[in-house]
């Protein structure tokens, strides 16, 4: 039986499932089904690829099955083990491996072209295919090392402020030019030794690192999203090489969606993508407001804070990365419940870039069973904050920094923030007076409306819960 | 230059698919609520693991004595499968938490 029509049909179904899956992933009600649809599409694509009739080769199914089994085992294990707080790192590392896969296959393809190139054969790969393969290797390599570095930064293995390169823009532009020059040179003189390919790959791998090094602080989500788009593009380029529509369409869909997501994130911070990539945030030394020596932040006891909240009408919690680190989301939900039992309305104000990934806070709070309709986006939050009695800021910092509004010298000037100072009182839960992840001093701490409740976010929230309970 | 022109004309259908897919990707994703940004990114990341199909084709086209292709191809499949399986599993875990109780 001729399997070709079946294969073509299978690929078509796979592509349709990818499209439907992505569409459904973008609406809360259907999101879970969307992910499953996309996974089924992928399964069909893989099965079809296993039976696809080929003109050459020995199939080598044993190796394929071993690869699939090992990869699936590792993937499932990692996905089950990872803590919800470490999700951004996990996505980043998965993404990096996809990029690495693209590098491996394009390298092998390039190696395959080489014999014909060196022999000057007429059947040698055309310049178009050659260029596409080199590009797939380049983009995949950047996604690979870039994602690994992003993982290292988010996991705290690499310190943003210590690991730096001088004149990053110059270095990056130079490397980029070198890569492009290398690719053009190899294209024009394809009979040059394979060594050239390895050099291009090496520089691309280095470029992935130097590309991500200057990006830090609150910009990490943006770069993960961008690298995700890169892997999609690498997959699509490989799809052109293999003349495979599932790879092409799947890859491009990811490339396009990753780009849109990246742009949306940049908009949320009121910055351009270029600005993020050049890295004005965590990297450059900020001329931003430094805390004056004579400014004093006022402390509050858990007892006083509990009284303040217990007799409030509207309380808003602002979660940030600190909440994720302290694993305080469940206690936050508990505090919400005891307050609501006492007739206080409690809501959560979610800044688009709170945490290390867009939607990071939503995922954590959902894990703690916080109801959907209690989570407010930036606009809703800011209109609610005007009628709010007490704002509790749990491990958030830069997203509530008023410098973004009134200090043109601040590196985050222009970023939309949660206007917590519109509320009557604010309470910041914080370990110490250290500035936030982005290293910018926060004048909110010294504001007359604000009180500090020092300590671990989880421990502080637990204290608040028991204090509110004793008030009855 | 001539080579590029012929690449263009020979792959015209594919280039059409490419352009339409880019447009489709933009349209599909626009206006996603922030709640879904992380799961969506994660789901899209799993889909980018489609590159694994390339690794399978690479191994299948190799001769059974070509140990370099077999070794690197298997490595590619492992990497790609981690991306695909792990990606979808992690996305599912995130979305499970959004289920209305």
Per-chain topology:
The complex is a heterodimer of chains A (472) and B (101).
Chain A: H1 4-25, H2 31-51, H3 61-81, H4 87-119, H5 127-154, H6 168-188, H7 195-212, H8 220-241, H9 245-268, H10 273-278, H11 302-310, E1 314-319, H12 321-326, H13 329-341, E2 345-349, H14 360-367, E3 375-376, H15 378-385, E4 390-394, H16 403-406, E5 425-430, E6 450-454, H17 457-471
Parallel strand pairs in A: 1-2, 1-4, 2-3, 4-5, 5-6
Chain B: H1 2-10, H2 12-29, H3 37-48, H4 52-61, H5 67-96
Describe, in plain words, how this protein is organized in 3D.
- The complex is a heterodimer of chains A (472) and B (101).
- With 472 residues, chain A is α/β, with parallel strands linked by helices.
- Chain A has 3 domains: 58 residues; 201 residues, no CATH class; 170 residues, TPP-binding domain (Rossmann fold, 3-Layer(aba) Sandwich), CATH 3.40.50.1220.
- Helix content of chain A is 59%, strand content 6%.
- Chain A has 17 helices and 6 strands.
- Chain A has a 6-stranded parallel sheet with strand order 3-2-1-4-5-6.
- In chain A, α14 links the parallel β2 and β3.
- In chain A, α1 packs antiparallel against α2.
- The longest helix of chain A has 33 residues.
- Chain A is elongated.
- Chain A starts with a helix and ends with a helix.
- Chain B has 101 residues and is an all-alpha fold.
- Chain B has 2 domains: 31 residues; 68 residues.
- In chain B, 78% of the residues lie in helices and 0% in strands.
- Chain B has 5 helices and no strands.
- In chain B, α4 runs antiparallel to α5.
- In chain B, 56% of the residues are buried.
- The chains are: A alpha/beta (472), B mainly alpha (101).
